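Design review, sub-item: ligand-bound model
Attendees: FS, YL, KQ
YL presented the inputs for the 2'-deoxycytidine-5'-monophosphate complex:
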Amino acid sequence: MKKITIAIDGFSSTGKSTLAKQLAQYLRYIYVDSGAMYRAVALFVLQNELINGYELKTFNLIGKLHLIKVTFKYNEALEISEVYLNDINVNEAVRSMEVSNVVSIISTVPEVRQQMVSIQQQMGSEKGIVMDGRDIGTVVFPNAELKLFMTASVDTRAKRRYDELVLKDSKLSIHSVLDNIKSRDFLDSTRKESPLFKADDAIEIDNSNLSKKEQFDLVVKLVNTKLNA
Ligand code: DC
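KQ shared the predicted structure:
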């Protein structure tokens, strides 16, 4: 059976991971959340005090990159693939606001990106993969058969992320989530190295007013077109 590569890019909290997971499960493909990899590096940076406020000790980080091993392991019970930093499960820890606040700074470092991109390309070398992120259709898999670019209004995105995070942190304010999303949008799309932009051959999906099911049905049609091409 023909296997394809599916690249899903877009701004923060546009539902990329939800869609990517659904698709991977449906197609029995590997799912990779590339953002979790940058988040794992950000966690390493915080744990090793390589950042002071928002001032990253870039030189020190580059010197320690060889000590960072980012992997994924499938959790059979939860039926999800979880991210590991140096063999420790950090799947929950990488979702914290502390990590969210610094991850976009860390992901501007070219050496960090090169290390992550090379792992990502290895994981996708046999196709049959759905990967979501910011540069998947532009840099990681420029030849992906299907490229999607997800968008949604900033308020919709902040509300979605807030609803998710407030369950774990009841003191969280919607304003802090909105500010974080806006500043990550800015950093992710204006950075010099692999900025977020829509590849020419990517299909844009604005899901502000789409239910998960409507979105999934729409994308399955696109997948089938590519599989039958
Ligand atoms: O998808 P996410 O919000 O978990 O990603 C976290 C950060 O990682 C995001 O702000 C930008 C960065 N990132 C990136 O630069 N390139 C990717 N392919 C994926 C994420």
